[in-house]
Predict the 3D structure of the following.
Amino acid sequence: MINIETLKLKFKKIFKTNPELIFSCPSRINLIGEHTDYNGGFVLPCAISKRAYALVSKRNDQKICLASNEISNVVECELTNIKNEPLHDWANYPLGIFATLIMKGYNLDFGLNILYSSEIPLGSGLSSSAAILCLTGFALSNIYDLDLSYQQIADIAHLSETEFNGLKCGIMDEYAIALGNKNMAILLNCDKRSFDYIPVSFKPYLLIVIVSNVKRELLKSPYNQRVIECNRALELLKPAFKISSLCELSINDLNLVNKILKDDILKRRVKHVVSENNRVKLFVKALKENNILLVSSLLNESQISLKDDYEVTGQYLDYLHDISLASGAIAERMTGAGFGGSAIALVKEENYEIFKERVISKYNQKFGFKPDIFIADICDSFEIIKD
Ligand code: GLA
């Protein structure tokens, strides 16, 4: 748990002044709809209450001074000369928001000191990077009186991640964080950027998050490679189907897709994307009808598709899936990009403690380190923390 008073003291120590405002934002899990967002499909994420914080004070000059409670260096940069540099490391995320707002014509006319702190384990698949991006957007909108809506903040954060930071990701993470709503999932149409809230209850099951503690940086993972593969498949399928994204295809189109595409890898990528997009729609219906049996089989099917057809799970997530089902979960799937990161599971309330103990022990026996397991608390989006 983050202690705000300790952070205030740290801020004072680093910047020799008190913070004027404190902002926070959640992280996210995705219930279903993986790797569909950059293919124009549906996703169903929720904001969860592992939060990131930013303490901010205004400066009299044009400098941006960024510090992190978890990483020791302070990064300094002139407002008039913001560049993505390897030396800036994590600070390239917040710097991207300053650069994107300036590029969009917003007037940022004085410098800032910002201290970040995060309960979101870095590289854990819970969107620690999107959280820093969105949090910075929210903080800057308040400090510079930009009056951005939460959706605009998500759009700015997404633009910054794709253009300034170079990850060709979809919009899911930024929208999930910025539009978070207590006990609601966000059914997001990534093509139209429109959304609906869907009440979430898996009673009598709990929604569990399992952090594999296998960290990965998406920029160094095959993530962008998957985007390229989908785009290549789309180009080859366009003449026959007259589509502008893969998620316009239906399950019935897959026979013809398989005739057109010669490359087995591309066939499997398209099969995952189209079937996963369909699973989101079935999942929402099942959730509304409280059909937990169908909900759980869709979650498990999603995991298998991500493993066999999209190939983004890897040995740690595969093992977590197997031991979770063997330890009392009725469903388990990776959440987020994969390649390590986190998973979600459905476990009966009375079995939770024993489930947790078994999964931690089996995983530790195999890999020599433990996963973190907690109950998902689906929460609201941004907050300004008052004294
Ligand atoms: C990452 C990306 C998202 C999305 C997921 C996979 O979290 O940032 O845009 O593509 O992976 O569903």
Q: What stands out?
A: The mean pLDDT is 96. The pocket of alpha-D-galactopyranose is lined by residues 30, 34-35, 37-38, 169-170, 172-173, 336-337 (CB under 6 Å). The two ends are 18 Å apart (CA to CA). The first helix runs from residue 4 to 15.
